[in-house]
Each structure stands twice: as C-alpha cells, then as structure tokens.
C-alpha cells in the first residue's frame, strides 16, 4: 500500500508542480519536486519488498500512467523542444539541419506563427546559431515530425518521449532478467520524478540516449563487445554525455568496443560531413565555451581561482582512471560485468564536479541506478532542480550549485564507506564461484 500511495503522491505532486509553474510561482514547484523525490524514494524502496510480478505491474503500469499525467500540460522546463521541432521541420523540407541558423533567409518559407510570432524573430534559443544536436537526435526530430505531420506544436515530441520512457522500463526489465538481477529495480526508473517531468512532461531527447545506453550496457554485460560498442556509439551520437560510460568497458575489450563505437558515430555523421564538411559541429564549440564558465564551483571556496579548473580536470581524470582500474580488476577476477555500477560512479562524480544546471541530464544517471548502481546517486538528480531554479528564484547559480551539489556530494560520500565494505565482503566470494559457474555447463558432456 505504501508503494501505491507513493505513486499516487508522485502523480498528485506532479500535477501541482506543473500547475504552479504555469502560474509563474518559482518556489512552489521546487518544493513540490522535493516532495516528489521523497514520495518516490519511499515508494521505490517499498516496491523492492513485494512480489516480483506485483512490482512489475505497479512499476510499468504506474510509470505509464505517470507519463500520461505528465502529457497534460505543455513543456515547462526550457525551450529545447522548440529547437527539436524546428530541426525536424528543416529536415523534412530536405535541408541539412547543420547548414543554416533558424533566422537564415533561406529558411523563411518554413516559418510559422508558433515558432516565429512576428514572422522574423524566432522563439528558439540561440536563434543566430546552427543546431548543436548530433545526428541520431536529428533522426529522432525528423521521425517525430514525419509521424505527426508537423502538427501539435511539440506535443508529438512529448508523446514520443513518454513512449520511449516506457520502452526504457521494458528494456531495463529484460536486461535485469538476462543478467540475473532483480527486475524490481525498474521502479527506480519508471517512477523517478526526473523521468516523468523530463520525458512526457518536457519531451527531452535525452530519453533516446537513455534507451540506447540501457541496450548497450545490457550487451556489455552479456560480453557482446562489438554490439555494445555500436549501440554506445549511437547513444553518444544522440547526446555526448554517454561518452562518460567508456570507463565501464574492460580494458582488454576496449579496442573492440571502442572501434565499434567510433564506427557507429562516423557512419551517422558521414552523410552530413559529405555535404558540409566540418560545419557539422554546428554550435557545439560555442555551447561548450558557454558552459565552461560555470563549472567546478564546489572547488572555488577552497582553492585560488587560477588552479580551480586544472584541479577539477585532474579530479575527473583520476576518477576515470580509478573506475577503469576497478573495471579491469573485475574482468581479470572473472566477476560478472557491472557496467552500470562503474558508469554511475563516473557519471555521478562528473556531474558533482561539473555541476550542470539542466535536470534532464540526469536521464543518463537514473537508468544506471535502475540497473544496479546505488540509489544514493539519485540525490545528484534531485540537486539539479535546485540549480535549475536559480534564475527564476532570483539567486545566483554559484550559491545554488554549491548548496545543491555540495549536499549531494556529502550524501554520496556518507554512503561510500558502507558500499565499499559490502563490495570487499562479497567480491572474493563471487570471484571464487565464477570459474565453477563457467565450467558447470560442460561437466556433463
């Protein structure tokens, strides 16, 4: 009953949060999102204790219902969906999306009152810049445009994202069953407020990458190295963030996985490169330059400004090396692959250090938790909403980053020691059992 009550609480708070956002009250939605995360965490923990079949019904059907509820309003967090719709429209007109910025006169015939209210000035972000989104994301925009006929003013993007969120739930269950995990963990994805708000609610393309990441890690856990690399490459060619997961690839398999990933990225970029050459990068360089000015804020109160960035980069590099070394140790010891555990460590630490202000970025972190990483990483996902609310609340990004990500870092650190002790206690047993498990199928033949 607690799990059902938690799901209903998430649904009710979601409605209130969106209604509060529509009325322009910045603080109320932030408080309600915090309550959503509390209700969700209590419900997800409770769901781990019920029968598997009951949990799967509640998780999958409840998650689908939450997506339906999220579809009741227009996107509220950001205006990315406007650019998605525009890029889809440009491609449907037979024009490469990386060729022109939205305000270019060559695209004047594609303008309408929704995206260009006065016929000249677009509602899109960065209207003077070419698109930033990689080719797989562009394929998604084109597909949604074609399926909806370009109608609905972005509603098709919300519906499509909601469908993919449910598909990701199914993929998580299939992967967990295949690797011998607990399929009840799917609740950590299906009911997560980040998933509900940022997919059905806001239609963010990150959910495409989430689905591809789940498939890639499932293949990686099954030791299908080339397939895993190809799908991971497609995820990277949707949003660049999945590149952080390369540390979850055992070093002995890195060549095969890496070559497949690079080939996949190259193939989806190739048609655009043949047309535009290096112009396919669009606004990527400018975007990375903008974001680089607001990173490593947690280090700024502790270090002189001149060394903040170098120290932050060193910390990221050290984290990657340590995670990759642990991946290698597991592989040498014959332990079952745990790409979601190692990937979550890399992604979580990177988010804490780089402090992105966009909650939808956590759509990369949530499926890793659902697959088997520690739920404590979801504190990072919750912290992103505090940072995102800085502007409407009239607060500086610096303060909200330090508070939000600082608290998240402390919570993660507090749970680190018990987790390390658990790993140390069980790893030798798993390593001792693993060779016998591999030999067992051959013993009777």
Automatic annotation (TrEMBL):
Keyword Protein transport recorded: no
**Which protein, by its recorded name, is this?**
Glycosyltransferase 87 family protein
Q: Which UniProt keywords apply?
A: Cell membrane, Membrane, Transferase, Transmembrane, Transmembrane helix
- The residue ranges crossing the membrane are 29-47, 54-73, 157-176, 188-219, 225-249, 261-287, 307-325, 360-390, 402-419
Which topology term describes how it sits in the membrane? Multi-pass membrane protein
InterPro entries found in the cross-reference section:
GT87
Where can this protein be found?
Cell membrane
Q: Which residues form a coiled coil?
A: none
Family label? Belongs to the glycosyltransferase 87 family.
